[in-house]
Amino acid sequence: IIMMLVCLINKLIVYKNSVKNLDVLKIFHYRRRVSYKMKYFKDIPEVKYEGPHSDNPFAFKYYNPDEVIDGKPLKDHLRFAIAYWHTFCATGSDPFGQPAINRPWDRFSSPMDNAKARVEAAFEFFEKLNVPFFCFHDRDIAPEGENLRETNKNLDEIVSMIKEYLKTSKTKVLWGTANLFSHPRYVHGAATSCNADVFAYAAAQVKKALEVTKELGGENYVFWGGREGYETLLNTDMELELDNLARFLHMAVDYAKEIGFDGQFLIEPKPKEPTKHQYDFDAAHVYGFLKKYDLDKYFKLNIEVNHATLAGHDFHHELRFARINNMLGSIDANMGDLLLGWDTDQFPTDVRLTTLAMYEVIKAGGFDKGGLNFDAKVRRGSFELEDLVIGHIAGMDAFAKGFKIAYKLVKDGVFDKFIEERYRSYKEGIGAKIVSGQADFKTLEEYALNLSKIENKSGKQELLEMILNKYMFSE
Ligand code: XLS
Ligand code: NI
Ligand code: NI
């Protein structure tokens, strides 16, 4: 037996030396992984609903996925998704510090082996939390190769692995997207780059990402304009860049039609970061852009909390704008720190924020293809594996609670009744004429000249905030 062992080790050494870029240990790991399947979250129990009195950090307090509200289980109202990039790829590195978070699936020297391990970890995680969706960038799931051909090959390999998992998993794809911002080729942007070769490369990348999203059954496809913006107007042809961005999006729409991808296209506004000025500044900017270029019928918006606050808006404002223009597609659920001027992507735990957000979603008739994607990451200091689970539970609970409060607010017509009364002057008399288009400047002047007194009523902001608090804390 000893002789046989020595012989085997010798053979392995010879093999190791003969295969470039591979090491024996890696082969062992890979074999073991395929046949035994490593468990990354084995110390964490499956997360279940235990109710508001539970002290268990690994239990839902407010999110009971099967609780039926308005004829639909909560899980279908909320459509939670996990963001592959933050949860499985982020390492806690920031402009001041190195990676501080060690993820056990990053255990190989080859990026492709790590990508495979990440898929295993991801599906184990989805199951632990019983979450219905996930979202991904092409580069989160598979690494870049030496050239586009090799990169696409990497992607195909991982996509077929994910497809296998999807066959038995309860978790599906909410949306896919292409990372058009990390690689140095995108230094001046992608569709808005000054370099036509980069435009072409980005187009090829989105073409592939659309194919892959379709193959994985993705319900939406997101465009977040990673570096589509500028640092200084002194070197920027803004007009050409915006025209090119529109050309790019039209090509995406055409190609989706060609391959029969019927997912919803979404644009995710953000005002700044990484560039000084991002073209997709906020919901209103994007809406104007889409209208100008005849793209509005193909796109909806993916509104992110932290991006709204970076633009100087409440999240509530962005959602309201999207809703009244029939553009509310999906939500990137996170939260910023109002004292910081950047996209901190914290887990959303502020129930007032989630209440007002779900209020808009309910008023919009709920999600169609969209959902609540946790584009959120644990803090650099929260580096333990369990923090990932806890962060998601906290976010899911906050949105579930917010949904329930908002549902009551809508059902009781609390704000609707007030608003209706506030604008009553447009229901009759001169107001009705204004609204129906029967009035013009001359008739209005005649009316105003004969007005003896104008009476206004209080806007009652404090009262409404008091009522909102009552709904939030009365359960
Ligand atoms: C970055 C964005 C990004 C998009 C997907 O700020 O939020 O994560 O959601 O590309
Ligand atoms: Ni986002
Ligand atoms: Ni963001």
Spatially, the strands of the biggest sheet line up as 5-6-7-8-10-12-13-14
Counting H and I runs of at least 4 residues, what is the number of helices? 18
Low-confidence stretches: 17-36
Alpha carbon gap, first and last residue: 71 Å
Shape: globular
Strand portion:
5-15%
Radius of gyration: 26 Å
Outline the biggest β-sheet.
Answer: 8 strands, parallel, barrel
Given helix and strand content, the structural type is alpha/beta
Would you report the number of β strands?
Answer: 14
Distinct small-molecule ligands in the complex: D-xylose, nickel (II) ion
Q: Would you write up a description of this structure?
A:
It is a single chain. The protein has helices at 2-18, 24-36, 74-78, 84-89, 111-129, 138-141, 148-168, 196-215, 238-259, 283-292, 305-310, 315-324, 351-363, 385-411, 414-422, 429-436, 441-449, 461-473; strands at 48-49, 59-60, 68-69, 72-73, 80-83, 133-137, 172-177, 220-224, 229-230, 264-268, 277-278, 299-304, 328-332, 372-374. It has 475 residues and is of the alpha/beta class. Strand 3 and strand 4 (72-73) form a beta hairpin. The longest helix is centred in the C-terminal third of the chain and has 27 residues, at 385-411. The protein is globular and about 110 Å long. The termini are far apart. The structure holds D-xylose (XLS) and nickel (II) ion (2 copies). The site of one nickel (II) ion has 6 residues, from helix 11.
